[in-house]
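To close the section, here is one more complete example, presented without commentary so you can practise reading it yourself. The ligand is zinc ion.
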Amino acid sequence: MTTHLIQGAAILGGEPTDFWMRDGVLSMSEPDAADGVEMIDATGLVALPGLVDLHTHLREPGREDAETVLTGTQAAAMGGFTAVHAMANTEPVADTAGVVEQVWRLGREGGYCDVYPVGAVTVGLAGHQLAELGAMADSAARVRVFSDDGHCVDDAVLMRRALEYVKAFDGVVAQHAQEPRLTEGAQMNEGELSGRLGLAGWPAVAEEAVIARDCLLAAHVGSRLHVCHVSTAGSVEIIRQAKASGWSVTAEVCPHHLLLTDELATSYDPIYKVNPPLRTAADTEALRAALADGTIDIVATDHAPHPLEDKDCEWAAAAFGMLGLETALSVVQETMVDPGLLTWAQVAERMSYAPARIGRVGDHGQPLEDGAPANVVLYDPSVRRVVDAADSVSLSRNTPYAGMELPGRVVATFLRGKPTVLDGKLA
Ligand SMILES: [Zn+2]
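Output:
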């Protein structure tokens, strides 16, 4: 196996350092290499641990016209990720050991990024009956994260049972917090703007009410709750209180909720239609502050590929969701690092260490030091580029950033010492 020498990389943005990768392991001193050493000049590049996404939609099985495990993990590698959690809302739903093992195997065969399937909480995501959580946990896929994402587990008894059940194997329930009755037919953030545009509103309270209930339930049964895609200032305050009470609650924010606001809906372009919806500038501000102070633990992409026909139609008929894997690090640089809200070391915590801890993924999210798994991303923060949807390696093209200028570029990604991306291209 080739030894790679990374020369002059700024680990977590620190002083330029040389390090080596051999047999899938990092070494800070030169290893005895019988065969050749491949040198990569990393002058000016920031080295981060391989990113871990707790919230990705890979669409396979069932919607291979939108994305496959292979193309989705290629997009992940292009974004600097070495591990992704694949959401359960596939066709069939990932609610049995058989389906989660299939997704897990497809990830291993592709070799671009480790895939950790998320198991459904309820059978068919229907919200009536708990799925086989234990069988999925015991399967080869070793599922630890359970979610009905796309749907909310709104039945309080089912949510309580799920929280109790996952304690047996140190699992976590990741909730898509959306009170269904308050959001019937909802199209965009509820506010003055939704009234003016004539689009049905998705009120902040529909998210906040579920988060508050779930925090109380998690505390009551002593289990772990993870809140998906937090989008409102009010949600942040509830999570802040839960953490101050010592409850096991973690939360994620999506890059698009850090950067984009509901004003974009004035275009009526469904590229900006997402669930939960883009909120106000005040919400965006609160989310950035919460990610900076640790109230929100992680960034997760909610990468949601859709084929053209599901997006190229009128707003009300269009699917919810946007691409996110390839642009996540650039959006975090733009919204958090460049304004001085996060250091690169804190980015590593929020995009690698913490998501790996929440998902109980031991082989990822490790500091870049002697003996660590060689999961590494080399990133150039000094460049700026205009996003071109045609450049995406995803099967879908629904990026909301097309035509926008964003900072940074992933130069290389290594999964266990093997390059998945080199010179900004798939290896
Ligand atoms: Zn969701």
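Once you have examined the tokens, check your reading against these statements. The chain has a mean pLDDT of 97. The first strand starts at residue 3 and ends at 11.
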